[in-house]
Structure formats: C-alpha cells, structure tokens
Amino acid sequence: MRKLFALLSLLVVASMALTACGGATPAAGEPVVVKETVIVEVPGATATEAPAAEGPKVLNLNFGPGDVPTLDPAIAEDTSSIQVIEEAFIGLTHIDEETSATVPGMATDWSSEVNADGNEVVTFHMRTDVPWVRWNGQEVETVKTCDGSADRMVTAGDFAYGIERNLNPTNASPYAYVWGFVLKGAADYNNGVTDDFSTVGVEVVDDATIKLTFLAPASFNTQIAGMWIGRPQPQWVIDGDCEGAIEARGERWTEPGFFQSYGPFTMSEWIHDSSLTLVKNPFWPGTDEIPVPKIDVVNFAMLDEAVAFSDYEAGNLDAVGVPGTDLDRVKADPVLSLELVVAPIMCTYYYGFNTQAPIVSDARVRRALSMAIDRQSLIDNVLKGGQEPAQWFSRPGLAGSPTMADYPDLGVKYDAEAAKAELQAYLDETGQTAESLDLTLMFNTSSGHQRIAEAIQQMWKDVLGVNVKLVNQEWAVYLATIKGADTPQIFRLGWCLDYPDANNFIRENFDANGSSNPYTDGKPSGGAFYNNPDFFAGLAAAAAESDPVKRVQMYADLETTLVYTDAVIAPIYWYSRNTVTKPYVVRTFGVGGQEALEKWDILPH
Amino acid sequence: MGRFIVRRLLYMIVVILVVSFITFGLMHAIPGGPFSREKALPAETIRILNERYHLDELLWKQYVSYVYAVLIPHVTTTPPTTSLQDDFMVNAQIGSVWFRWMNFGPSFKSRSRTVNDIFRDNLPISAQLGTMALIIAIVIGLPLGILAALKQNTVWDYLGMGLAIFGVSVPVIVLGPIFVWVFGVALKWFPPVGWGAQPPYILGFLPSNIGWDFFKYAIMPSIALGLGSSAVIARLTRATLLQTVREDYIRTARAKGLPERAIIVRHALKNSMIPVVTILGPLFAALVTGTFVTELMFGIPGMGKYFVTSITNRDYPVIMGTILLYAVFLVVANLLVDITYAFLDPRIRYD
Questions:
Q1: Using a CB-CB distance cutoff of 8 angstroms, which residues of chain B are in contact with residue A192?
Q2: Fewer CB atoms < 10 Å away: N or C end of chain B?
Q3: What is the pLDDT of residues A17-46, one digit of tens each?
C-alpha cells in the first residue's frame, strides 16, 4: 500500500510542479507569431537581433471551424475562401468594402459601348506593373518567365484564362452561373452546349486590354466583372510550362509551395484545418483604392465562434465575432463594450410561402402572417444583435435597393389590426376558424432558427389565433425538401450578396427559376411556386435601367409586389454582425462578408 | 496464439466489409447529396461532378470500385502522381514495380485534399490527444478504484467514488469551457485553445517538439477528456476488486501468510483487471480516432469533427473513411484486449 500512496503523492507533487511552471510562463498572453516550419538558418538574419520595438506587424484573426475549402478562384463558394482570394487576386474592377461602390481594380479605367446586337461591350484598360509572386519559404519573391530573364506580369491573357477555367464545365464551378446570366455565350459554354471558348464574349486585345461582351447593358455588369469568378490563375502552375520544367499541379495548385498570386497579400502557410497565414506582398504597387498593406502578417485561426471568443479574451486574437450567447455580457462589460461594433452586413432573413399550398395560396393569409410578425420585438427580445427589421427583401445598401430614409413606409410592417382584418376576410369567405387552419413552418435544424421560429409561432398565436406547427430538418435534407414538390407552406431562408446590386437579391431568387423559385419545364416546381409574368418582366426592365433614381423606384414597386401585394415572402430582418476588435487595431468593416485587410493597421501597444 | 491472431485478422476483413456495406447503403439512403446548395448548381455542373466522382454509376458498381480502391493492393509500374484521384496511403516501390494500397478518394468539400490527406494531417493530433487522455484516465482511475475497494466504506472510498461520480456526470461540454475560462482566460496558465504539434510527425504521429510548447496545449484537453473515462475505470476497478478479494484463493493466500501487498498486487489486482482491460479496448478506439466535442471546445484540429461534418456535407468519401478508420481501430483494439486476457488469466487459451 505504501507504494500506492507514494504514487499518489508523486502525482500531487507533479501537478503542483506543473502549476508552478504554468504560472511562470508568460507565453500564454502573447500573440503567436508566424509558425513557420521551413526554417533555413541564415546567420545574422534572425529576428532575435532586431530591437523588439519595430518587429513585423502581425494580425491574428479567425475563420470559423473547419478547413478553408479552397483558394482557387474558379471553384470558391464560401466566405473564408473568398476572403483569401480577395487579398491574393485583385479583379478587373473592385468593390469598395464599405460603400459597395465599383472602383478601379486591376483595370485603371474602362469604357462601354452598345453594339449592333444590343450587347454591351466593355473595354478594360489594365495596369501592367503587377508581377506574379510566390512565398519561397522565407520571403515573397516574384515569379520568373521560363528563361528566368524577367518577371511574369499579370496580363489580360491571365484574366481570360481565369474566366475560361471558371466557365469550363469540367471544373464544375458553383458560381459560374453568375457569368451565365450576363456574359455573352457564357451559359452555353458552361453548360457544355459548345466547347469553343471563342464563342464567349471574352477578347484579349493585347496584354493590357481585355474586352468583355455582356448580353445587355446593365449597371451591375462591371460589378460582376470584378467578382472572384473572374480572377486570373497561374496557368503555368496548373497546366505546367517551360517544356515540362514546371510540373502541372492541377487542382493541387493552391497548396502551400505551389500557390502563386499577385494581390496585396499572398499565402505563405496553410496548415490544413488549423491555420492559414497571409504575408504582405512587397511587389504590390498600391493604388488609391487598394493600398500597400501596413500589416506584414495575417494569421487566420480556424476556431468555433465561442472558442475564438475565449482566445480573444485571452489576448491571442485581435478581432472576432461575438457569439450570440455572450452578447449581453459583452454589452455590460466595461472593457469589451468599448471594443464592440455592430455593423450591417448585406444579408436578409426571411420566411417564404409556398404560394400554391393549401391556405397560404391565398395572398390575404400570407399578408396576415407577415404583418403579424413583430420584427422589432423579435430583435429586442430574441436576437439581441442589433439587426434591423426588414420591410422588404433587397437589403438597403445594395445598388438599386430602396433605403429606409427615402422609403420609410415601403413594404410590410408589423400591424396587428390589419393582419387580423386580412385573415378574417379569408376566414369569412371560406367559412373556417383561425384555430382550424392547418399550417406548418419548416426550418433547417439549428437552435438559432428554432428560437426565432418559436417566437414567431407565439406571435401568430397571439395576434391571429392560428396554431402553426414547427418542423425542422437537417440542412441537406431541408434543401431537397424546399426545392421540390413537397415544399411546406412556410419555409425559412436567408440570402447574402454575391455582388452588391438589388438584381442579385430579388431577381436571382424570385424570377422564374430563381434560387427560391425553381422551375421545371417552364412551370414552378418548388420553393415559392411563384408565377407572375408582370413581376418577372419588371425584374428584367429594372436590371436594364440606366437611370439610378428611376431604377430605385422600379425596385421599390417590385418589392411592394413581392412582400405585400403578392406576399410571396415575409421578410424578417436585415443582418448585422457583432465584432470585438482590440483597441490597437485600425480597421474597416466590410459589408459583404469580406474584409479589406490592406487597409488595416496595428498601432504600437 | 498465432493461429488465433490470423483467424481474427481474417474476421476483421469480414467486419470491415460489413461495416462499409452498411455505411455505404445508409449514406446514400439519406436525402440530399454532396452538391445540393441553397443556390442550386446548374444541371450540367452537377452532371459533370457526378461523372467525375462516379456518382452517376449504379450503386453496387460504386461500392465495388470503392472496396477495390481501398482494400485491394494495386500493383503497377506507374509512379504516384499528385492527382487527387491517385492518392494511396501505402506506396512501396520494389524495383520498377509499385505496390500501392488504400486509396480513400478525394474529399468533395475540401477540393484540393484527399481523405488520406485528412488522415495524415488530422489523425496524428487526435491520436496524441486520445493517448494522453487514456493515460490520464488510467493513472487517475486505477489508483482511485483500488483505494476505494481496499478502504471500502471509509472516507477514502466516499471521496474516490464521489470524484468518480463527478467525472461521469460533468461532461466535457461543461468541463471544457470551464477549463478554458478559468485556466486559459482568467489565470492564463495555459493557452485557451489550439494544439502544439504540427506536421511533420515522428513515425507519422508523434509530435516532434515534446516539451512545454507541446504540453501547455495538451494538458487541459487531455484532462478534460480523460476525467470522464477515469471515473468509469475507477468504478469498475472498485467493483471487480471488491468481488475478487472475497474469493477463496485470496483467503488461501492470506492463510498461507503471504504479505498483504503480494496478495493484492499479484493475486487480487491481476484477476480484477479483465473487465477493466475489456473496456480499455473500445475506449482506446473512441479516444484515439477523434473526439468531436473536446476538439471543438479546445480548438484542436483533430479528426473528431470529420465524423460529424462529413455527414452534414454529404462528403461520401470522408464519411466512409472516418467510419472505416474507427472500425479498424475498434477491431484491432479488441484483438489486443483478447491477447491481453491470455496474460492476465493463464486459464484462457485460444488454440
């Protein structure tokens, strides 16, 4: 027995020793600097010799749990992938992250003309001073041509290659369809109708000039030209070059060691599932809109939101999102409340109606359900995250979208009396009672959606006296349900921008065969089951309108049809996001889900 | 014994085939597919993706080609390429011939990685965490159980079993955030999240930097993960040891005048270990192949989340890969358990 006690006491002593050890180590509070594994010893060049005051500026951020799916602009579809792409590859045009204005990117200017076929031909004039770069394990270096004599510069041909690769059906790009809407010949090439890329409206005039032919004039054509789906990719890495001296990497070209880019930052390290590191590209010339970065290194962790928030509080991360459950505490905390910023983000949360399902096939019922939702109360008591009550679908801040300042009474609002009257009219006509209505609301399984649905279920009960059943399904099952004939009467969805124009919201969702209104053989086959030819014609007309003031009015009228007259959806709230940022970080807040890290800075602290 | 092991290994192949068959059937039976998106992909894009990953073929054909790619060793003269479709776990070159085995296929979600990449990058981390948690579980659980049994109905017993009940009833999902908050954020003894080891690993799974840089990340999650299991071990040890010390042969040993220590260690303890060793097998498999909650709570890039996210993503090759990985670990661990029986109890013979 004595042996056992000896063992136990040894354990106690050992744990004390560990404790003491932990207390004495300062490392926990310090930001983790670049975790570079490839270290080549260069005498005298190590960071330890430099005075501590002027070290590299390192920013530590978080991406959310799970690996970044890809860094390939041709196949990216999620916010983390696109965040890296936005820093590593600059588009022809560039979207200002705060104002959503279309500004020069790799193209310094562009001119537009309408040809005899009614197509809009846009000629982009590009910068010629941007070289391709790569991280060589120690520093960023330029990529040389085959004979090694010169830097490879970004050319119009690289853009054409990037667009081709995005549209090429063998790459199965999830976002190529956006080109299909606007670029001449893109849909046919992407759908395999033709394999001749010269039929697509992309023409390389010379190294510094590229012409894109769009199907019709539209203000968002140049926005789409700047999206991540139209970024150059290093053909020589993907397909191989220099008579085999550069090995073809295919889909693996985005892996560390192979990756090449040209934007203000490039990727230096990617430990899958753990972290991704961007380093400043010293060869990026810097423009008025996309300056030379002030920060040298950006580390992205891949942590769950709640875990990342703990790491922020421990001082290891510099800016993170605030988990909903921590919001009340953050607002009450004297330090954290000063670091909290609530910023808008271009997304809309809504309930859609299956307009051909029993009961909700009557627009009065849909209007009643929509007007019975007290959105402000939902935000104040359930969401608590500074969201805005949504009166219509296309979030204000998008080009073409009405704003609350100009249209305070547009769309749909909480109005208990009007809601009751609408429902009563329906009940009287059909001889039913409110309690007898058999209604189902379906959403994808998530505690957040559950809480919102329960609150709205109670509002419907209190205001209208209807009992709505709640059903939830796992996400992929749910998607299959709401895109097919079994779409429930009421379903939950949200939408975030791809490019900042109302067209991306209202038309790409609710046009015939839009994302929430799928068609098969020319007939509604899922989602909203919505068919209103006047509305569809209005969407096309608004897209083509060149006068911005008139255009906003056209969208305002379309929104009235969508959320009030036809009440196809009940818009619920416009998103905001809650972030905390350390006081020494100078930053901007991107409204589209990505940050312009080249504008950020870190003050001495 | 040798024949027994060979027989069990052959059974293992049958078990793996059955598990893979059931998993394959179930995952194709649930609605939704890997390419269902909120913004639906064009039909042509889906057709091409299905063609590329052979999802357009008949299900039995897909299953047969999967089993062929994973289980059957390939003998070829073409060297390995970097293609995502051509990533084998085992690549051995003998002369000009390549023996290549276990191609689990590409991940549908991470489009520049394969399932083998996920195993290579993430499994070592889960294995490191799981092994340490298991060691902690044994080091805490075993002495606690022995102490409780030998000092039955004393304060030691109540203290030990109280601790065990605490360990079982406070899950990692509660303990993890408390640890992170108290020791990571408030006291700053340990980094609250993350993992201290990175590829490349020694022998494919051991961290190359064993030291404070490694353990400062590992201590909190290992304890949080190991505590629950230590409670199970403690209670089981106590129960079986209490039973054993009442056996006739213990009385005989006492009557012979053997010292108490020899009676407990050599006779009672050894004979009480069979139930404990039995649960160590499945416990080892469960801890080492990845633990979803612990890894999430402490931000550890292990295998755990792939067991869950692969299903939500309908990432078929990753679903199959993770399930088969777990199955192999479980079967092998149980085999080791059976072999250990023979050492613990000489009456057990397998041939």
A1: 44, 48
A2: C
A3: 333 333 333 333 333 333 333 333 334 434
